Amino acid sequence: MSLSRLSVTGVRNLQPVTLTPSPRINILYGDNGSGKTSLLEAIYLLGMARSFRSARLNPVIAHEQTSCTVFGQVRLDAERSSALGISRDRSGDVRIRIDGQSVKSAAELADTLPLQLINPDSFRLLEGAPKLRRQFLDWGVFHVEPRFLQAWQRLQQALRQRNSWLRHGTLDAASQAAWSRELSLASEEIDEYRRTYIQALKPVFERTLAVLLELEGFQLSYYRGWDKSLPLADVLAASIERDRVMGHTQAGPQRADLRLRMAGHNAAETLSRGQQKLVVCALRIAQGHLVSEAKRGQCIYLVDDLPSELDENHRLALCSLLEQLNCQVFITCVDSNLLREGWRDDTPVSMFHVEHGTIAQVHGPSGVTA
């Protein structure tokens, strides 16, 4: 899987541009503020229908523009391709099209164009709230377990109903019992999918991390969100009064977490910035391997400022792992010399110079028009 063509209009400081990227390694270099990250943001918008730099989409739209548009031609395999498009205007309207058909769910975009992002904010996966780690976990489960999305939607509906009842007491006894049962069933199903996924992810992650870093005593574990020795139905029944006081459900898969520890301590508190970056990279590369096994195509990697926090040896090791994925990678950096070498001779590498929002190809097999 790869983006064979990408067109971007009205995104931040980028000039309207159409790229024909390499199916493997694409390096975008230029000064800070030139627009490199904005191109990664445009690809992310195409696959996720949202930005990774802002909770709101309005800042993504270029000044004096009423809307932004991203179009991509995705090569699914040797014989199949798919056309994706997304546009957003300042009024808040979002339009998503796949192969000429309008769609309402961003999940269809994510399924067609799986993306992995590694950027300076990736440290938050270790340092941030459990919600970020649940999102990381569920992204992987979504792409390898087709039944996950339906179970997750059932969970969200049951949680909304139960939490509304806890706050307002508007459900009769029969409805309360029905929604509590639905919540328990959906939760147990989601927990099963997550546990199965972690069992598959953990050995791949450990092998990947060993290539990048020696961390004796590093542990990855999964907390499902309630006592592992009890069914959720029993936990919900026992905590009903506390839940009423709090106004929402305290136990369940919405409280799940990935726990990353070093010699028994929180990894974020003991590892250096460079080590944290390599741990996050190992997690995301391991996810890519599982997606490749589950689907006929691979996900696309967006790596912002790859050389940051890494010495030459670790930088080369990370590039080698990305190369071994045999997937499409977009990498940004300031100094192109740091990433120009180190790739195999048979790996297609395209170099793009970004300056004042204009992108020009300077090396590689692909063409660029801007």
Automatic annotation (TrEMBL):
Protein name (database record): DNA replication and repair protein RecF
Binding site residues for ATP: 30-37
Subcellular location: Cytoplasm
Pfam families the record matches: SMC_N
Record bears the keyword Nucleotide-binding: yes
PROSITE patterns, alphabetized: RECF_1 (PS00617), RECF_2 (PS00618)
Sorted UniProt keywords: ATP-binding, Cytoplasm, DNA damage, DNA repair, DNA replication, DNA-binding, Nucleotide-binding, SOS response
UniProt cross-references to InterPro entries, sorted A to Z: DNA-binding_RecF (IPR001238), DNA-binding_RecF_CS (IPR018078), P-loop_NTPase (IPR027417), RecF/RecN/SMC_N (IPR003395), RecF_2 (IPR042174)
Record keyword Iron present: no
SUPFAM superfamilies: P-loop containing nucleoside triphosphate hydrolases
Species, as recorded: Pseudomonas saudiphocaensis
Protein encoded by which gene: recF
Domain (RecF/RecN/SMC N-terminal): residue spans on this chain: 3-358
Family stated for the protein in its record: Belongs to the RecF family.
Task performed by this protein: The RecF protein is involved in DNA metabolism; it is required for DNA replication and normal SOS inducibility. RecF binds preferentially to single-stranded, linear DNA. It also seems to bind ATP.
GO molecular function, one term: ATP binding
GO BP terms, alphabetized: DNA replication; DNA synthesis involved in DNA repair; double-strand break repair; SOS response
Cellular component GO terms, alphabetical: cytoplasm
Domain of life where this protein originates: Bacteria
